[in-house]
Amino acid sequence: MSVLMSASEAREIEPATVNTTDEVTAFIVANLPVAPVPGIPEIRLHGARPGSGLRRVEQQSKLSPYWAYQWAGGAALARHLLDHPETVRGRTVLDLGTGSGLVAIAAAKAGANKVTAVDIDAHAIVATRLNATLNDVTIETLLADLTAGAPPEVDLITVGDLFYERRLAKRVTAFLDGCLAAGIDVLVGDPGRAHLPREKLAAVAEYRVIDFGAAGVTTPAVVFSVVAVTR
After folding, report:
1. For residue 88, what are the CA distances in angstroms to 78, 110, 115?
2. What pTM value is reported for the model?
3. pLDDT digits (tens, 9 = 90+) for 135-165
4. Is 42 contained in some domain?
């Protein structure tokens, strides 16, 4: 899970990201230890711990470092793809708001032909590349906000935990409507955030996973397919 915003907002943020890629890489390697993802031991990620110093990163980038934490929707999606590799095998996959790259890595491990991980936070892109290398998978990364643009040329879009804020959810929902109309399959992982467009979704599977801030307590999260476009 990560944050997405409009293209104009993203352009305003870019100058505030003063770190070079090498500096961000060095920070993540030095301060965010590697560990298996709870409930998804097949995947290891750099992750935040007490004293990781992420406040400094947030002050520099002006974006919350969501990429450094596990979120329930992404965890459910990753678990689902690994348990059901036929979902992605041989397909082109785009992970929207990739954060740490967890879902993108799961798609690659499950046999996707090509995986693109997209985020508007440059730090998330660096973290995704590091985590992909850790897990011995190849993932393309893209620093961009796609929600105002045309549907990408992919077979499947995965979306983990992007319905936590009203304006963001409205943009993401409109973008996914366009993708569905273009014939792209969409899977959403979400534990029931406030702005989840439930009327457009059909439940596929439910998993108990760790959520951000839950202190090791599992919570149910659902994998949905997007099935309806509202006009």
Report:
1. 11, 7, 10
2. 0.89
3. 999 999 999 999 999 999 999 999 999 999 9
4. yes
